[in-house]
Amino acid sequence: MDLFVLNRHRGDNEDEKIPSASSEQSKLNKILQRVEKNRRNRSKRKEREKLAKAAKQRTREARQIKRELKAKIIPVPENTTDEFTDQTVFEEAATSEQSTKLEGNNKKWKPDSKGLEGFTVLGEASLVKKQKVKRVLPKWLLNPTVIPSNPDGLPTAISDIKKLDEGICKLLSDNGVEKFFPVQAVVIPYLLRAIANSCVISPCDICVSAPTGSGKTLAYALPVIQALKKYIAKKIRALVILPTQDLATQVFKVFKTYSQGTRIDVGLVTGKNAFQVEQNQLIAENKAFGLLSKVDILVCTPGRLVDHLKLTKGFDLHELEFLIIDEADRVLENVQNDWLYHLEKHLSEEAEQSSAIAVRRTRPPQKLLFSATLSQDPEKLQKLSLFQPRLFTYDSPDAANTSEHFIGKYTTPKELIEKYVVTSLALKPLVLYKLINSEKLNKCIIFTHSVDSTHRLAILLRALFKDELKVEEISSSLQGNSRTALIEKFTNKEIDLLVCTDALARGIDIPQVQCVISYSAPKYLKTYIHRAGRTARAGEAGLAVTLLHKPQLSKFKAMLEQAGKTNVEELFISAEDLEPLEKQYEESLNELKQSIEKEGKMLKKNKSPKTRKGNK
Ligand SMILES: Nc1ncnc2c1ncn2[C@@H]1O[C@H](COP(=O)(O)OP(=O)(O)OP(=O)(O)O)[C@@H](O)[C@H]1O
């Protein structure tokens, strides 16, 4: 009978009871489950291995395709018939040209016959690199009128431009303008000729790309004033669009100055004044003739222009002879208000009405575009439907370092000296302090990247300089009028250091700014050009310094290279120079901390429901 006794393991304890039938079954189930689990894991592992193998195979194949493509470089074919050239292709062209030379021919790639032995190749291999679309710039952009930066041979004396009105010549000398700058010496006579011939030939539209501070405003203001002097009836005949309130105000002042002694009235609509106030400045109601314009030249921002087009009764631009877009690249970026659409709509509606009423101007206005960084993107310019456009650009000394296509794209004044300082993030404010002290800078604009950083830096500089230098800040947090007041103070040297955001980077004309410091490195070349352009204006000398952290250096250099600037020097400020200032720096940082905390508390207090109730 012992033969039929199953000797089961009873555990270490011999006295343990023999398990019952049900526990026996549950144990068996567990074993079966474990077996099933192992089986599932095994099949999962196999699946994973299979996928990994397939992925590896795909990578191998992709690498192989890449290798094959690299081995057969297909050159970009010369294309002279297409209308456009993509600007980016210029940069890429150099590399593709090099590789073309290396290959030395234009043959199509054929698969290696050895590798395909035994296979029938149907048709041609499909691994042919796609041809790049090479757009060609329109002729007028490729063949600009180059304005020499050296004025020799240009009609630079005021009396050299014979057709210029005597009254304007007198105003020029009254305002200290003795000679014309190159852009003025070329553009003013051109526009005066076009205006004189306009009854016979429709004048061409023009685009002018000239450095910051080169005198572009007078280049368009004087011919426009001269052309409109003859009119007796008041209509808006010139519309000047600028991207910001401050710039529009600045240009308005120039028009006001040079239209003195004429019948011309200049208007300004930017949103600085209440809408109704602006409406009253623009339109008069006459019992006999209805609504009449009160201005001949209107300077405006795009947003406010759209508002008046939509809401101001009697606002009529149909007699427009000149449409001037200053800082044109910036204004054209302003899609927010779609000003161009509204303007075109207005002009076409008026034209339909007018044909039924009387003889009115049927020709579209002459368009004059100006900027230091004028867009050469044909698509953007095409939006303006330019009529036989002509481009005027500067002959830049930096252009020699770039491809010929660059000519005049982004140029800076030749009087500008550019430098950079490499510093750590922690010591940046101290480096700035040292730089201002050692270079004895006292009329200096410092650019940061945000409102917050402008505010903090201004507090810190105030703490560092104490009474030595007066520091103020300008950003979008300030209202228009306070901004204008601060700019005036800075102009009159009542403020030494002006810390600001890029709101002040474009177009603002402050004479004799000694230095522009980019405390936060500019992200784009355009920003750099406009910031640096606040100094070295109107033929004066100026310094532009950029503070960089080490990782920013290569990007910064590459950015400047796009403008042909390869010789920008480094300015060294050593750790030894900074050592004696460390204690002062620490104290100033503490002051900054306290000041920010105090402001935080004030803000909280003002926001608390109790205060709000009190205020009510
Ligand atoms: N012929 C001249 N002689 C002396 N000063 C001039 C002359 N033309 C212009 N200026 C002065 O040069 C300064 C710069 O002129 P303007 O603001 O027109 O430059 P810009 O080319 O428009 O610069 P940005 O591109 O920065 O707007 C102004 O203060 C202006 O009064």
Automatic annotation (TrEMBL):
Keyword Ion transport: no
Domain Helicase ATP-binding: 197-392
Pfam families: DEAD, Helicase_C
Catalysed transformations (reactions): ATP + H2O = ADP + phosphate + H(+)
Residue ranges with Basic residues bias: 603-616
Basic and acidic residues compositional bias, start-end: 9-18, 46-61
InterPro entries in the record: DEAD/DEAH_box_helicase_dom, Helicase_ATP-bd, Helicase_C-like, P-loop_NTPase, RNA-helicase_DEAD-box_CS
Enzyme Commission number(s) of this protein: 3.6.4.13
Keyword Repeat in record: no
Region: Disordered, residue numbers: 1-61, 596-616
Annotated Helicase C-terminal domain residues: 431-579
Enzyme class, spelled out: hydrolase
Gene Ontology terms, MF aspect: ATP binding; hydrolase activity; RNA binding; RNA helicase activity
Alphabetical UniProt keywords: ATP-binding, Helicase, Hydrolase, Nucleotide-binding, RNA-binding
Entry domain remark: The Q motif is unique to and characteristic of the DEAD box family of RNA helicases and controls ATP binding and hydrolysis.
UniProt record similarity statement: Belongs to the DEAD box helicase family.
Reported function: RNA helicase.
Protein name: ATP-dependent RNA helicase
Biological source species: Exocentrus adspersus
